[in-house]
Fold:
Amino acid sequence: MDSGGGFTDLLQFIFMGLQRGSIYALVAMGFNIIYNATGIINFAQGEFVVLGGLMMVTLTMGFTFSIPFAFLITVLFVMAVGILMERFTINPVKNPTVLRLIIITIAVSIILEGSAMILWGKESHYMRHFSSDETFEILGATILPQTLWIIGILILIVIGFMLFFNFTMTGKCMRACAINRDAARLMGINDRKMVMLSFALSAGIGAVAGIIITPIIQMDFGRGTMLAIKGFGTAVVGGLGNSLGGLVAGILLGVIEALGAGYISSHYMDAIALLILLIVLFIRPSGIFGSSEASKLKEF
Amino acid sequence: MGRQDYIGLCVFFAVVLTIPFLITNDYYISVLVFAAFNCLACIGLSLLLGYAGQISIGHAAFVGVGAYASGYLTVEMGWSPWMAMGAGVVLVVLIALLIGVPALRLKGHYLAMATFGFGTILYIVAVAAVDFTGGPAGLSDIPAISLFGLVLDTDKRFFYFSWAIVGIGLYFGLNLIHSRVGRGLRAIHGSEDAAESVGVDTPFYKIQIFVLSAVYSSIAGSLYAYYVNYIDPGPFSMMHSVLLLTMVAVGGMHKVWGAVIGAILLSLLPEFLSFLTESFQAVGLEYNEDYNTLIHGSILLLIMLFLPEGLIDGLGRLAGGVGGMINIKRHQDSAGT
Structure:
């Protein structure tokens, strides 16, 4: 990065922030979908991202599949992991307490992390970019085409989910379950199936986030926890369960983090994001967009 | 303290006294010393988790603060190890108050994530604040601690010392839960609103126990620093917080004794596994530290799914179940004749 003056630097940081923020927004969306359907915070959300990235590396670099084909297979694979997780660890628990559910999802997250370490090793993996990896300049700031891919795919996913939740029967059923599970069940909605579906969707979104970021950050097995906690921070800042809030918060958090890394210290970049999380949690757990009424926890 | 607890403590001290006579291998003694550190941290965590019902997945950070306070103050400032350990405790109390007062107003997921975030921040600081912590390279040449003029620099001496401290911590913890505070805490665990309505000062009790459990961790960290004489950020990561949680869950969250047993079992597990796989080496099975994450995660999951009250309670119920079945059978038999 050449220091072409204050404005160019600023623009550069903002683009970096958009790119990171898009990923946080996607992870937050994953959290929100499961939270809305079940009231559970899935601590394994970050591992879905890691699995998506690593699987994509294997398929594109190992098997040399084309990117769109590998993309599809990877998303399906991680969705299957999400479904298995729900079937074997969430569904069988009768009369769950919050504490027990938290610890279960933590346990799943470590199992996934440990498996990823054994299967893919400890090193970080290179993956080719979706299109060219030649940078180009916008107003003096250098941009990777991959950054545009990330932002574009985020927009597509947001539109896709808006359509899904507002205009399909299944989407409406999921929203009904989120609003009032008992009432939804009385209307003949199979709420257990909706829970499974929410895990599948949220795993799929996690996989997409992992796939699109891997060419830039070079995925390794250990990134899951940090992604999970930042994604959760994003979801809280945006108001837990509020998808649009999560989107704005993700971009905001990404940009603040990038500015902090650029102007203060890159060593403490992750700490800055976590500090924001703690401050919001302590001062306004309903999130900056949520009403105080929304802060009453859904089920627990 | 009930009579059972006194008997338990007697057995505990008797076992601790005899072990160095039975195990002469220094390596195994050192494994047991590490188990003592985990034990101490787990007793504290079980008071918080099992009795106050508050989750923390950032406790390794308190262990780290104790270890780094001891390391920095003895190496860079030339303090005596005891002074440094005390300073570590004071620092941890302050940090626990700072984080605990706002955090304990949160519940469930929010509290879990807040402690998680806090633990991660301290880990990042340990790696990045090179001037104080030595960064990833860590601090070395931490002096050994001495007791009554006796330098505790052999495995056996440290074994007695660390387990004696565990015993004191255990005694203190058991006393606490049978006191007014302990009854208040159990009331909070049952129902916070109900506890408050009968006059239990819930915020005060919760913060008290949070600080106390942090102090246990801090002392464990200081002891670790004086035993290994070298610290780096590695052992204070999130993974260790989760490991502590696993130990408490394995033994049974609602019993202090469970924390002790869980900590010992899981600390010895890697040794046991490497011993076990030695006989399978011919088939290519070899134990590797890399599997630890996976193994700990699986244990935690299985316990939470099938024995949420922990191993001891689960085995007890299993035995009770079998006993019950035999009784029924006997009953039927006698009814038949």
